[in-house]
Amino acid sequence: xxxxxxxxxxSLPQQVARLLVVxxxxxxxxxxxxxxxxxxxxxxxxxLLGQGVGGVILLGGSASELxxxxxxxxxxxxxxxxxxxxxxxxxxxxxEGASWLPPPLALGLLHASEPARAIAxxxxxGHCTGRQARLLGxxxxxxxxxxxxxxxANPVINVRAxxxxxxxxxxxxxxxxxxxxxxxVLGCAKHFPGHGDTDSDSHLELPRLPHGRRxxxxxxxxxxxxxxxxxxxxVMTGHLLxxxxxxxxxxxxxxxxxxxxxxxxxxxxGLVVTDALVMEAIAAxxxxxxxxxxxxxxxxxxxxMPADADAAITALLEALASGRISRARLEQSxxxxxxxxxxxxxxxxxxxxxxxxxxxxxSAELALARELVxxxxxxxxxxxxxxxPGLNLIRVxxxxxxxxxxxxxxxxxxxxxxxYAACLIDGRSPSPWSGELTAPLAxxxxxxxxxxxxxxxxxNPFRGSAGGExxxxxxxxxxxxxxxxxxxxxxxxxxxxxxxxxxxxQELPAAYCPGQMPLAQALLLDRLGLAGGGLEGGFxx
Length: 541
Fold this sequence. Notes:
TIM Barrel, Rossmann fold, five-stranded parallel sheet, 18 helices
């Protein structure tokens, strides 16, 4: 069992290093890293952990591999670490083999008609996420998103939110937190004080939220209050400029937002962690060292993904030496970190062998995933598409990397069985577009026959939009006018479905699901009359 020495016994550089959370791949080998720009190579990771870095955020790999990886990180550090992941949609969102659940807004939509059922499912969602995270060696889940997605043009929150109004979001995040933390992991309410009513992405630029204290108290803050009342262990800052509160610094770097609003007014006494400091909202304006010092001065306890870990440590040490940061302030954050570690679950014992993780999804969790998809599905029309040959036209964010579209994905395999050939396009695909506003598809460049249109559209980091500017209404009208639209499937954003549904003939088979994963595809295509035929490797199970 790894024991952690009292931070008071550590050298000052080791104490400062405890404040950092760096990023690595869930894969074991350097050559498997998906995002080398942000994921440290093993040699550098091992060096930083040896110097005292206190946390790691992981992404990618299988569930079984993650368990090996978390064990490896603990050995390299020889002490207890904060090990976390962005598993807002279940652990399977990031690590194959665990439960990948529909995004939280699915329950936000259900809450309008069945609030008690939505709250119960949010609690089960939290239990599922917390149990699987703990089994794989994580002790901190960077969820739930507490932002109120009341702006349909939001390019980065969208279906990640639990609701479009503060009451819905507050009730559901509280239920999720209670469920997850009951499994022994730390939860994280993000992105304080609220990223929902923005139309820009803080991964790319600094969003402005032009609201005053009264409006924040009515809309943005209630879900965070609910999370704090539910006992959430950590709160993540948002890289947002709120000129009515602080005209000079974004929330992550603002004492007025973190110390005054979050600590004093809302009474939060747990750990405050920054959003990733490598994001352009911060990195484009402040160097890695100064950003770390400003965030710590503002009231953050942990610094997530500084652009340069060594520069951040050096700058914090210099700030301590000059008196810019007091030793008492450092000790305050180290104490909060120590209490959080004690509260979070210890990593699983070595007796939990990776081969035992083959059944990581319990039967109840498998049933939960199906229920969450089923309750969020909307459909219309008569099931059944005309026989092929036809075209399966699929819109994705990128044709190169789609974890929800493996080779045997239902969205590919089921139409293919009925003679519909797949054509994947993204925003950079030139071939199908005509350049016309009213008839954007160049139909003469496409194969003849009926068209099944499948749109995978949602807010995602780094895209800069939620797809709302794309001409899908015109495409639907063009295909209808040509007598070629055979069916429509929308996965992700409810706002696109709401825009397209009034354009459809009542008998046309069409369906919507907030989830994009293979299970969501399978159940949605069932509604369209494209039933499974044994080609999908168990995605309908």
